[in-house]
Amino acid sequence: MDPYALKTLNAERRARRAAVLVTDLGDGRDRVVREGDKVAGELGAAIETAFRTGRSKAVEAEGRPFFLNAHLPQPRLVVIGAVHISQALAPMARIAGYPVEIIDPRTAFATADRFPDMPLHAEWPQDVLARQPLDGYTALAAVTHDPKIDDFALKAALDARCFYVGALGSRKTHAKRVERLLALGASADDVARIHSPIGVDIGAANPAEIAVAVLAEVIGAFRSRGLARRGEAA
């Protein structure tokens, strides 16, 4: 591999940014394509697919053979609220391959007994997220139903372009939340990205079922990244 390409690829990986190493199998030349870089034609379409799926493979484009080596950060889930939904959601998400962290300043809820073997922060979200910033490969689910806890985290998730942002609450509750987030400086387009009511509509009737609905929505959001801008159904 070209040393400059390797240095660039390693820098992207350290920063939790996706990149695809494109190798021309005809002449052996390498180049690194960052997520968001514009690549035209058949090769560009194949690279977009590699970013969305994370799968590395050989492709033919414009009559030339290439190998696309996809390097995607592992998606993770940050849950704001150490509630019953979180107790069900956290182990399910880990099974699905999403490392989970729970944040809740309410020490009566954020206890190791309720969340064994789970990264748990009994602190305010603004303090935790200052140390561990969100990014585009993070999903955030806010489930405390408390604006004092949820709102900052939601705004931070929108600013960080998290691939999924969801919030518990009725439509009436969310309408008030939208007003608060707009007052905090969020744009209307950004606020429209919030999934609320949270989770796929499966008629969930208890915390465990809501957790299933949330995880399904997170996975769907991750696997459909980039489809909307290509004119496909997201």
From TrEMBL:
Superkingdom field: Bacteria
Coiled coil: none
UniProt-listed Pfam families: XdhC_C
InterPro entries xrefs: MoCofactor_Util/Proc (IPR052698), XdhC_Rossmann_dom (IPR027051)
Domain XdhC Rossmann intervals: 77-218
Name recorded for this polypeptide: XdhC/CoxF family protein
Species whose genome carries this gene: Mesorhizobium hungaricum
